Amino acid sequence: MGRFEFKQVVVLGAGFAGLLAARAVAPFASDVYVLEKDGDWDLRARKGIPQRYQCHTLLMRGQRILEDFFPGILNELAENGARPLDFSLDTCWFFRGQKMPQVPSSLIGYYATRVLWDRLVRQRLETFKNIHFIRNVSVKGLVSLSSDQEFVSLMTEPCAGRVLPKNSKEVLIIDALGARSQCAQWLSEIGVPAPPVVTQRIQIGYCTQIFQPASGLKVSWKALLAFPAHSTRGAVILPIENGNWLVTLISRGGDLPPKDPESFIEYLNSIDCPELQSALMHAVPMTSTFPYRIPVGLWRRYDQSEVPRNLLSLGDSVCRLNPTFGQGMTVVTQQAKILHELLRAKKSRDGLEALTTDYHQLISKVIRNAWELSSEEEEFQSDVRRSAFSNFFQKGAISLRNEAVATDDSTFVFFLEVCHLMRPFRALLSPLFLLRCTFVLARRLCFGRFARLGERSVDAKIPLRRLSTPRVTKGRAIGD
Ligand SMILES: Cc1cc2nc3c(=O)[nH]c(=O)nc-3n(C[C@H](O)[C@H](O)[C@H](O)COP(=O)(O)OP(=O)(O)OC[C@H]3O[C@@H](n4cnc5c(N)ncnc54)[C@H](O)[C@@H]3O)c2cc1C
Question: Does some domain include residue 153?
């Protein structure tokens, strides 16, 4: 087995994962080549990333790692029209029907369109002399460089060989091709067993439209997340650049949100949340509606399989998470950080032996943490637990926690920190936390009542006349 050292890195895909991967490896390589099949990657209507229209939250953990990689980038976000907010104080959040507290927290960050996040990161990378973007190149497969498949090289179209180094054993390849990556299949085509795949039934539908809020509108929040209890329908209003709102319908269980603007409003009106309808009553649509459907979550277990020593995967190509929890990009930043730190440690100590194995083992921990949160939600909403007994206790514990989180400010902030991946998901399962929830509820049962969705104070409906033609034409919207 020869020693593995690389000089060059080829990153496949210039999505969020590809960009972060390039940043993570740049200090350790003479050259980093980022291959991307899309030509015009600034368009919102980018073919390679069809989900770019949809709301994309970068959680607190992700924002902090991004700022470490690119100091000052959050300020740039503000300079580009995003506004800072407290994810607790400034968010009116109805979760499983409960109104969450709006209290000050240390979770201060930004919402922005996905286009802006990508663009700011890419602009920073363009200042790196050793990072080279090569567009209009499609990766088509892998080639084995030895009979034991220890090292692989790439097949691309059109051939990018002229820019890539000749001795490919000295090239580290990073698969950041997104959820539709065919890397696992390409591996099996050259005789390397494909990794086992774990799936999670999600069946989520999104539909997004950008609105301009009515001038002079007064609301007690900057972001609204409306998820009524016992309903497959929800919606969010997120503040994005230039004072606009990104409004996304989110459905579960196959009840897909409609595509046409009229039904979009009808769908909004069908959600049991007066705050939602009042806020949008006089808002003006700025774009068309953009639908997206995601049937399953997918985790390719590279940590449980043999992979070539110069190939690793990052981002959705390893794991596509349930998007409702907004974790995907944050998990990308966590993976990039792991890669960066692993390279630093290995380069200065024992060389790059077992780089890919160690990397895939380490990232499986951050993926598991995010995966478990959405698994729990699916299990709570359906009956996928193994026995009625465990189902009863699992749902009981979650209901207890939900009530406590909605009732007590500090318990809520703790929960929010878990959602923002600042604390491990397991913290919610600890006996101490459950005891705390029990205590909170006992106290509350004696003194107060809960605010719930469905206690309508306003009977608001968004009028259909608001559906006048969008001010901005399809595909060229805010953020472009
Ligand atoms: C509806 C929806 C909502 C979401 N909301 C959130 C959210 O709120 N917060 C969050 O953090 N995450 C969210 N996500 C997840 C987020 O979109 C992904 O986690 C993130 O985009 C992963 O980035 P990636 O670079 O791995 O993949 P992608 O963004 O899919 O990028 C893959 C790149 O590879 C390129 N490519 C593909 N094939 C080839 C090829 N053969 N050759 C060359 N290039 C190729 C593509 O053109 C593209 O540029 C959401 C996802 C969906 C579907």
Answer: yes
For residue 139 and ligand 1, the question of a CB distance below 6 A is answered with yes
Q: Which residue among 20, 177, 363 has the greatest number of ligand 1 atoms within 8 angstroms of its CB, and so is best to mutate? A: 177
Q: How confident is the model at residue 253 (pLDDT cuts 50, 70, 90)?
A: confident
- CA–CA distance from 431 to each of 426, 442, 445 (Å)? 10, 16, 21
Task: Give the pLDDT confidence of 410-419 residue by residue, as tens digits.
Answer: 999 999 999 9
The bridge status of strand 171-175 relative to strand 8-12 is: parallel
Do 189 and 314 sit in the same domain of this protein? Answer: yes
297 lines ligand 1 (CB under 6 A): no
CA angle 220, 323, 407 (to 5 degrees): 40
How many C-beta atoms lie closer than 10 Å to residue 421's C-beta? 25
Q: Ligand 1, residues 115, 225, 329: which to mutate, most atoms within 8 A of Cβ?
A: 329
Same domain, 350 and 231: no
User: How far, in Å, is the centroid of ligand 1 from the Cα of 141?
Assistant: 19
In angstroms, the CA 374 to CA 368 distance is 10
Q: Does 185 lie in the same domain as 216?
A: no
Q: What is the mean pLDDT of residues 323-340?
A: 96
Residue pLDDT, tens place only, 412-456: 999 999 999 999 999 998 889 989 988 888 887 777 655 444 444
195 pocket-lining for ligand 1 (C-beta < 6 Å):
no
38 CB near ligand 1 (under 6 Å): yes
Could you tell me which of 147, 204, 241 has the C-alpha nearest to residue 328?
Answer: 204
Please determine, for residue 329, whether its predicted confidence score (pLDDT) is greater than 90: yes
Statement to judge: residues 409 and 434 lie in one domain: yes
Burial class of residue 148 (count of CB atoms within 10 Å of its CB; 0-12, 13-18, 19+)? exposed
Q: Quick check: CB of 175 below 6 Å from ligand 1?
A: no
Contact 206 CB / ligand 1 (< 6 Å): yes
pLDDT tens digit sequence for 113-168: 999 999 999 999 999 999 999 999 999 999 888 777 788 888 887 776 655 666 67
